[in-house]
Each structure stands twice: as C-alpha cells, then as structure tokens.
Amino acid sequence: MNNNKKIPLGKPTQGYHLGILLFLALCLFSGLFWLAQSHKIDFWWGMSFNLVFLLALTISFQPNVFLLFYEEIKRKRWGPLILGLISAGFLYGLFWLAKIISPLILPSATKNIEAIYAFKEGASCWRIALLMVLVIGPGEELFWRATIQRLLANLFSPLSGYLLATFIYTTVHLATGNPLLIGAALVAGLFWGGLYLWQGSILTIVVSHTLWDILVFLLFPLVN
User: What is each CA distance from 138 to 52, 63, 130, 179, in whole angstroms?
Assistant: First the structure.
C-alpha cells in the first residue's frame, strides 16, 4: 500500500527552502563530479560531505522526512525490505545488459565505463563500502527522492515531482561529460523515483540504492 503521505508545507517559505536545497545540490554535486573527474578530490569523501551537509539542512527544513523513515523502520515490516533487495537485483541486471549492448551503440562505451570506476582509485574497498552503507546509499534517497521529489510533488503533482526530481538528479551528472554516467543517472533516477512514486516507501528505495551501489562498485563491477 502506498504510504507516500504529503508533508504539510504550509508556510510561504516552502518554495524558498526548496530553492535553497536545489541550488546547493546543483553547485555541490556538479562541482564534485567535475573535480573527481579531474582527480582533484576524493569522490567518496566528497559525496559523503555533500550529503551530510544537505541532509543537515533538510532536517531543519523538513524533519518529517526523517521521522517517516524512522517510523517505517520501527514497524519492522519485511515487504519494503524484500522489495528493496529484489529491485536492486533487477536494476543491476538492467545495467549488466546495458554493459553488453552499449559498446555496439557507442564506440567509447568501454572507456566511459572505465572512467566511472576510476572514482575508486586511491580508496580502499572497506572505506567505500562503509560510506555507501552509512551515508551515500541512504543519503541520496533521503535527499533526492524522500525530500526533493516529495516537495516537488506537493507543489505540483506526484507525476510532475517524479519527472522534475529525475531531471535535476540527472542534470548534476552533466559535469562529468561522461554520456554513460549521465545515462546511468537518468535510468537510476527514473527507476528509484518510480519505485518511490509507486510504493511511497523510503526504506525500499534506501535498501535498493545501497545494495545496488555495493553490487555495481564492489561485488560485481561492470568493467573488464
């Protein structure tokens, strides 16, 4: 059952708060991807810092997001958790197929994929795993879907919020100049945003994103 409750916005500052979050997200993530692509910053620490900073602001603007997530965990229902696990495996399968097909369409596909995995250089697998589980996987979903998509949906409509949030999520990846990474962000944004639109479960998308990160970057990398 969809429990995607509306967060009461009410105050005239609602658009102002959303604008601040979006502006900062565009600046921070675009800057991170540009610097990481040039190997001028550690991607994993940079991503973690950005998410902690943005989520700290989110707590001050929309604390209900975190309360809803906490309440969902307290209910100890297996359905959202299982759906998160299954959806992560399904999305990994889609990306595995894309890895096979993409070189047939885009000659530079293999080089583009290798550039994505270059973000791992200089970082231990244990550090990447810990940051993915504790910060990056949960943080991205709490911010992009549970906060940005929900706020946009409250201002416009659930479908508009879903499409706008996915568009913005994809846009911040343009700074990489990597067509495969941009395409991957679009597909992943549509997938997790659609899953959230359908189920309204923060736990499901957090589990899905976190497990998918672990599968793609650590357990079964999509690189030769």
Answer: 11, 16, 12, 25
DSSP structural state of residue 173: G
Establish how many alpha carbons lie within 13 A of residue 41's alpha carbon, considering only the half-sphere containing its beta carbon.
18
Give 73's Cβ-side CA count (13 Å radius). 11
pLDDT tens track for 140-159: 999 999 999 999 998 999 99
pLDDT digits (tens, 9 = 90+) for 100-145: 999 988 888 999 999 999 999 889 999 999 999 999 999 999 999 9
Angstrom distance (rounded) from CA 182 to CA 109: 12
Assign 9 to helix, strand or coil.
coil
Q: Is residue 199 within 8 Å of residue 216, measured between CB atoms? A: no
Q: Are 193 and 166 in contact (CB under 8 A)?
A: yes
Spatial distance between the Cα atoms of 167 and 72, rounded to a whole number of angstroms? 27
Question: How far is Cα 136 from Cα 127, in angstroms, rounded to an integer?
Answer: 12
pTM (2 d.p.): 0.92
- Nearest CA among 125, 117, 128, 119 for reference residue 223: 117
Domain spans of the chain?
Answer: 14-219
